[in-house]
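Morning run. Coffee first, then this:
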Amino acid sequence: MNVYAKGALAGVALMVAGVVSTAQAQATPATASITATATVQTALAAAKVTDLDFGATFGGIAKTVLPTDVSSGEIGLTGANNAEVTVSFTSLPAVLTGPGTNIPVTYGANAGAFSAAGSRVGATTFDPATGATTRLSNATGLLSVYLGGTVTPAAAQAAGTYTGTVNFSAAYTGN
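And here it is:
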């Protein structure tokens, strides 16, 4: 056998030995650890700011309050900055009750509005019957939600104060 062939054979033998050695070294598993964490965000809170106030009305004349009007109802939300929330009016009274015949109340497709800036001006409208998904303020974690509607008293409506209760709900979506 010539020197070149012996050298090649020796090189192959070393490579085989290296493969066996590497395979034996890899039999020991590699391990690592990680830490699991969770950060609980600020609880979402809702509070009445103002009631929906139709003010003085007259028999037989409908009166509308837009959600951007100063007499619209307002609910303030406080929570985690920039968190996504769903807002909904879980109960919208169809009538206001009082000393006389009930007064019908209607809510149009744009009778609800929300604003992370806390301003009725420029608020985004939504249908209060279906609710909306939006985000709390990125800077403050606040959101204002507004409600308007229309009352239609009967022509011979008895004088007095008529009321109804609006129920509201908001929840984090997790996004």
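The first strand starts at residue 45 and ends at 50. Good start to the day.
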